[in-house]
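Run log // design_07
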């Protein structure tokens, strides 16, 4: 047996893994289409919980401290596919603010690449706590419908570069495309909501792809003995989640035009708070 292997499991285990991943993808796609919330916020905590259950403390992921890293990298791969579609749709609707996109794109790529290269070297407890805080913050925003008060026009290139680089890095660490950071930032700098969301959707693939490439390159040697892993990306989970997300995202969009998503926003906030608390406790070895 190779020193690092996730692939030697029973057929029932693999069927269960794939079925759960399709459900995760369906849930993340539906919620993303309905609420405009990035699917990574659902995928990352769900995958961490799934991997914790299927690959316990003595398993190949947990024993190497890679459970969270694999979940994040896999989420970024899934998010890239879905954000390409949403970004293209926003571009066709002319909702992309080109000056902001030009200023942010190169530094989002740089930040995303740095995240994939440096995040695996961070203690897993630090990554889980960071994700828990981010997920909890988004849950509070969802439950209160908070929006930033517009402040001023878009900043110049130096400040834009700093903000975009940090957004790319922290998004890559958390396994998201950065929309939850970019949308309120663009709104603060007086972009209309449709342009803030459209520009964020257009820029999401830049973050996700640069992060995925870095996570694959960084983990290439680490996971060379496992046919199920491409770098740190769990290939079967990626395929199953993407399938579910692509099928259910249009249903979420259609549902959003038919009725108020207020109840689902509240349920999602509860789920995210529970996921954040669970990740926080697990990081501290309390739960």
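design_07 sequence
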């Amino acid at each position: 047996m190779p020193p690092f292997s996730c692939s030697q499991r029973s057929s029932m285990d693999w069927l269960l893994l794939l079925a759960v991943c399709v459900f995760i993808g369906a849930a993340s796609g539906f919620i993303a289409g309905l609420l405009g919330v990035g699917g990574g916020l659902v995928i990352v905590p769900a995958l961490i919980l799934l991997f914790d259950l299927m690959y316990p403390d003595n398993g190949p992921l947990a024993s190497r401290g890679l459970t969270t890293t694999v979940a994040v990298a896999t989420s970024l791969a899934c998010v890239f596919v879905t954000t390409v579609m949403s970004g293209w749709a926003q571009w066709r609707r002319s909702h992309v603010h080109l000056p902001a996109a030009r200023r942010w794109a190169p530094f989002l790529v740089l930040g995303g690449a740095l995240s994939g290269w440096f995040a695996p070297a961070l203690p897993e407890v630090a990554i889980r706590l960071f994700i828990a805080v981010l997920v909890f913050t988004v849950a509070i925003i969802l439950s209160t419908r908070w929006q930033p008060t517009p402040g001023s026009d878009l900043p110049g290139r130096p400040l834009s570069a700093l903000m975009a680089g940090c957004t790319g890095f922290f998004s890559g660490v958390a396994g998201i495309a950065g929309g939850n950071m970019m949308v309120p930032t663009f709104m603060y700098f007086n972009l209309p909501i449709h342009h803030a969301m459209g520009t964020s959707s257009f820029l999401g693939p830049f973050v996700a792809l640069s992060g995925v490439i870095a996570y694959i390159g960084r983990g290439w040697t680490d996971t060379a003995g496992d046919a199920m892993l491409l770098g740190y990306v769990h290939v079967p989970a990626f395929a199953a989640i993407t399938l579910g997300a692509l099928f259910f995202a249009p249903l979420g969009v259609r549902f959003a035009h038919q009725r108020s998503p207020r109840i689902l926003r509240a349920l999602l906030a509860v789920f995210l708070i529970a996921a954040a608390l669970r990740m926080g406790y697990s990081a501290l070895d309390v739960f």
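The mean pLDDT is 85.
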